[in-house]
Specification:
Elements (H helix, E strand, L loop, with lengths): L13 H9 L8 H11 L4 E5 L2 E4 H17 L7 E5 L4 H13 L2 E4 L6 H11 L3 E5 L7 H8 L8 E5 L10 E2 H4 L17 E7 L7 E6 H13 L9 E4 L11 H8 L3 E4 L5 H11 L3 E4 L1 H11 L11 E4 L6 H11 L3 E7 L3 E4 L9 E2 L2 E2 L10 E5 L13 E6 L6 E2 L3 H7 L6 E9 L5 E6 L4 E3 L2 E3 L1 H8 L5 E11 L3 E10 L7 H10 L10 E4 L13 H14 L1
Parallel strand pairs: 1-11, 3-4, 3-5, 5-6, 6-7, 10-11, 10-12, 12-13, 13-14, 26-27
Antiparallel strand pairs: 1-2, 8-9, 9-20, 14-15, 16-17, 18-19, 19-21, 21-22, 23-24, 25-26
Helix pairs in contact: 2-4, 2-9, 3-4, 8-9, 10-11, 11-12
């Protein structure tokens, strides 16, 4: 690594990190070494099930070593950042592990992200290479990235994954690198507390946030999260409905495979029918997705009478989970529904396997008991950062084995979101009750301001999901010349009859929500659009509402 290379410094004291190694909370091994140990322990266990079929640990390791050899021959080595824009499948898993084996830093971002955002990520991370799909649905990511490579001084290679004949001129075929001799490769054995992966979060910033995680934070901290959902310690079989390239998806290669020796069941794109078929055929122990995806699956199941093989857990995160969806999902899947509260920035809390339907309070589903083996959680005064007593509402802050190193190339974000002693400021408001259960009540920023009054979209969504004619909903603020903003409800109807704005208002009144928080615009859609990370695309909904207003 050259002297002027991007520096990823740890904002937690090294002695604190070491305590988690000494007490066994973190494994103190790099991700490839962990994976290799799993491979040696069970040579022929299935590692990946994707559109191409099954791939065992030994075959996967051979491909990983071949790719690592090919990448090393290109000059890629320890500390180098390499972007990865691939759909879920064996290629993305191979790339993850090969980069870890080199001691390089993986920067995954989902397919479907536009070229301008990709350029922003690669430029700010000083990526030396990117591995991208030559074609995926309507996207031609490898060609797009090769076109802009001239404007990225650090980017030396664009590696294209795809069928022969689809690879853009000037790119390096991934298949060619996979033909390298795996016997020549000797792993780098990087420091387990050094950077292994950069997570990308859209967040509330003008540009996507990038957060650097170490091997120990991924396999240790995030690995302990999944361990708490494996009651008998049997290697899990995890169906990921979210992209592996998302923050939620970072529980894939590093956690499911390297830490727990399990199996990844992967879909190259989410559809409700494809997800249900995968549950029936592959019988996963854990299904991981966002509530919107599960609501789509539940609609397909309505009236079908077909039972699903029950997993150990249905883990839902990425967006608030409402009581109606949780109860319906628990009945349909026949297993505990786990509400996961977490983010790329470094917070994790969940409701666990103790109840089939996650516990609730007066405002909806709770976040659960914080696990100090994953992340300790406190409630702090947003201005002074001083810890508040139980029951007091304040900003949720987090610090623990899964805490990331730092934001990438953004010292201003480190100053804004990390306290001097390393705690992560989430921007979420909540409180801890007398039983140390975390309750999330809103966000410092995610509000709609109507005539000076603050409205929490999450609060309104939570109540609307109980409306009998609402299958799914996202609330967004739309500009208004008089009030500044007005709240709009974007609704997917349950059944043939869509709700009216008046019926939504009556329902909210019955739920005790004051009139000033009622939606004033209604947009009925067939499905909520999703971002590349699998979350409701609020920006797209806001554009549709703005465009429809312009036509009136």
């Amino acid at each position: 690594m050259t002297a002027d290379r991007l520096v990823l410094r740890d904002l937690l004291p090294a002695e604190l990190r070491r305590t988690w190694v000494v007490d066994g909370t973190c494994p103190d091994l790099d991700l490839y070494s962990l994976f290799r140990a799993r491979q040696i322990a069970d040579l022929h266990r299935t590692a990946v099930i994707d559109a191409k079929g099954k791939l065992c640990y030994t075959a996967l390791d051979r491909k990983v070593r071949a790719l690592a050899t090919g990448l090393r021959d290109l000059g890629i080595g320890p500390g180098d950042v390499v972007g990865v824009q691939l759909p879920d499948g064996r290629a993305s898993v191979i790339a993850d592990l090969a980069l870890a084996a080199l001691g390089a830093v993986s920067l995954p971002f989902p397919v479907g992200r536009g070229v301008l955002e990709a350029e922003c990520l690669l430029r700010r991370a000083e990526a030396v290479a990117v591995i991208a799909a030559s074609e995926h649905r309507a996207f031609r990511h490898a060609a797009d990235l090769h076109t802009l490579s001239g404007s990225l001084p650090c980017l030396r290679h664009v590696i294209a994954a795809g069928r022969p004949g689809t690879l853009p001129d000037g790119t390096i075929p991934l298949a060619e690198l996979l033909r390298s001799d795996p016997g020549r490769f000797v792993p780098a054995r990087p420091d387990p507390d050094s950077a292994a992966r950069i997570l990308v979060s859209s967040g509330s910033e003008a540009e996507p946030k990038m957060i650097a995680y170490s091997h120990n934070a991924l396999a240790g901290g995030r690995g302990n999260f999944l361990a708490s959902l494996i009651p008998d310690g049997t290697p899990p079989r995890c169906l990921f409905l979210v992209p592996l390239a998302s923050a939620f998806g970072s529980n894939g290669t590093a956690v499911t495979l390297a830490r727990h020796g399990g199996t990844l069941v992967l879909l190259d794109r989410f559809t409700a029918d494809g997800a249900l078929a995968a549950v029936r055929e592959h019988r996963p122990t854990h299904v991981l997705g966002v509530p919107t995806m599960v609501r789509m699956m539940l609609e397909r199941l309505d009236g079908s009478g077909a039972e699903l093989p029950p997993p150990t857990a249905l883990v839902l995160g990425g967006a608030p989970l409402d009581e109606t969806t949780a109860a319906a999902a628990a009945q349909a899947f026949g297993c505990p529904v786990v509400n996961l509260y977490g983010s790329a920035d470094g917070v994790n809390c969940h409701t666990g396997l103790g109840s089939t339907v996650p516990p609730t309070d007066g405002s909806g589903v709770v976040a659960g008991h914080p696990d100090p083996r994953v992340a300790e959680i406190r409630i702090a005064d947003p201005e002074t950062h001083e810890q508040l007593p139980d029951g007091a509402v304040g900003e949720i802050i987090s610090r623990g084995p899964m805490t990331p190193l730092c934001y990438v190339g953004a010292p201003e974000l480190d100053a804004r979101y990390r306290t001097p002693d390393g705690w992560v400021r989430t921007g979420d408001l909540g409180y801890l009750d007398a039983q140390s259960v975390l309750h999330v009540v809103g966000r410092l920023k995610d509000i709609v301001i109507r005539g000076g009054a603050n409205i929490s979209p999450a609060e309104v969504e939570r109540e609307l999901t109980a409306h009998p004619q609402v299958r799914d909903v996202a609330c967004v603020g739309v500009p208004d010349p008089l009030m500044g903003e007005r709240l709009a409800a974007c609704v997917v109807a349950r059944g043939a009859q869509a709700p009216t704005l008046a019926s939504l208002g009556e329902h909210l009144t019955g739920r005790g929500l004051e009139r000033c928080k009622h939606p004033e615009r209604l947009l009925v859609v067939a499905e909520l659009p999703l971002t590349a990370a699998g979350k409701p695309d609020r920006a797209a909904l806001r554009r549709r509402l703005t465009e429809s207003s312009a036509l009136v």
